[in-house]
Amino acid sequence: MDAALQVENLTKQYAGFTLDHVSFTVPKGCIMGIIGENGAGKSTTIRAILDLIHRDEGQIAFWGRELASSKQLKEDIGVVFDGINFYETLTPAKVGKISAAAYRQWEESLYQDYLKRFQLPADKEIKTFSKGMKVKLCIAAALSHRPRLLILDEATSGLDPVMRDDILDVFLEFVQDEEHSILMSSHITTDLEKVADYITFIHQGRVLFCKTKDELRYHYGIIRCGKAQFEGLDKEDILTYRKDDYQWNVLVADKEKAVRKYKNAVVDDATIDDILLLYVKGED
Fold first, then answer.
1. Can you state the angle between helices 92-102 and 108-117, rounded to 10 degrees?
2. Beta carbons within 8 Å of 256's beta carbon, 6+ residues apart
3. Taking the domains of the chain in order of start, what are their residue ranges?
């Protein structure tokens, strides 16, 4: 299978919120980033994928198989949430012993290598660790049972830029062999700009788009213009727009076309953050 993970028409209904037929594919050897505002459905999507909550509709396949169909799949998937996964009275050494009993693929030497790389003392209780140290411990444990797919839900949230950069380097190393894949949700879009190959944007429970990062970074653009210029734009060129004081900010899918077509307008590059904000706060 060329896909590590396939999500088709994933639906989950709550009072006041619906995850509405979410579909996307994570190819092997790639990093898929999930973006969206708080409450958009990112964590619900990940929990439904992992069978931690019941889904109302949809199919989830890991390398073509359902999660419940094989114990081996649970060995092949590493998971890190935003927060510590272990009792805080444990030490990293005890975490290693527990994990060795839980995973047949556990590799103690690899785990010890990560503890050294992340400068985590093996015999100190987790409750004495900083948030960044706790995240690093969770990532070390997730990687040390040799998963083929890593699933991360806001795992780098709250970390300082230097520590995030170190962890992102680990993620890039993980997918170098083109057999490993990562699905990571994050509200820190600069992290995804560094490492992601694809971006899935979930807004109000629906997928607005699933595109390559390069398409978003190099093709999308923002027209900055006044009222008269805005009113002269072709409606089919406008993805979304937002009025900011006396300026209109207009998101377009083809910035080179916009430069040629609207010669008197300023057309800027669009970051992933710009795209998210314009879709969330803009108007169609």
1. 150
2. 219, 221
3. 3-216, 219-281
| Distance of alpha carbon 55 from the chain centroid | 20
Quote the pLDDT of residue 1: 55
pLDDT band of residue 86 (cuts 50, 70, 90) is confident
HSE of 56, CA atoms in CB hemisphere, 13 A: 10
Query: What is the maximum alpha-carbon separation in the chain?
Result: 68
3 state DSSP class of 48: helix
Return the closest-CA partner of residue 222 out of 200, 205, 202, 237: 237
The 3-state secondary structure of 157-193, one letter per residue: CCCCHHHHHHHHHHHHHHCCCCCCEEEEECCCHHHHH
Q: What is the mean pLDDT of residues 124-136?
A: 91
Multiple choice CATH, 3-216, 2.60.40.10, 1.20.1270.10, 3.40.50.300, 3.30.930.10: 3.40.50.300
What's the pLDDT tens digit per position in 233-261? 999 999 999 998 889 999 999 999 999 99
